[in-house]
Amino acid sequence: MGLRQLYFLPGGLLRKLVHLSYGLSVILGIIGIKLVLHALHESGVNSPRISTPVSLAVICGVLVVTTITSLLASKKQTAQ
Q1: Is 23 exposed, middle or buried (0-12, 13-18, 19+ CB in 10 A)?
Q2: Against a cut of 0.85, is the pTM above it?
Q3: Contact assessment for residue 62 and residue 12, using Cβ atoms and an 8 Å cutoff
Q4: Are 37 and 50 in contact, with CB atoms under 8 Å apart?
Q5: Nearest-angstrom CA–CA distance, 35 and 46
Q6: pLDDT digits (tens, 9 = 90+) for 28-38
Q7: 16 near 77, Cβ under 8 Å?
Q8: Phi, psi of 45 (to 5 degrees)
């Protein structure tokens, strides 16, 4: 594959993944909450800890859900 094809491949995918921005904003919010809870725990406040496997599973789940909903939405839009 040439460089030109590799450049247009993500552009075509991003056109189909219409809900990706919402999923990324949810992921950033989850990461922010985890950082705040970790900072509170380090300063001595009794706060819940979110383990790395749990946060990784949530991030992967959000990405899978947004990808599936995006593909279904783009498929529905092209069918109309």
Answers
A1: buried
A2: no
A3: no
A4: yes
A5: 14
A6: 999 999 999 99
A7: no
A8: -80, 135
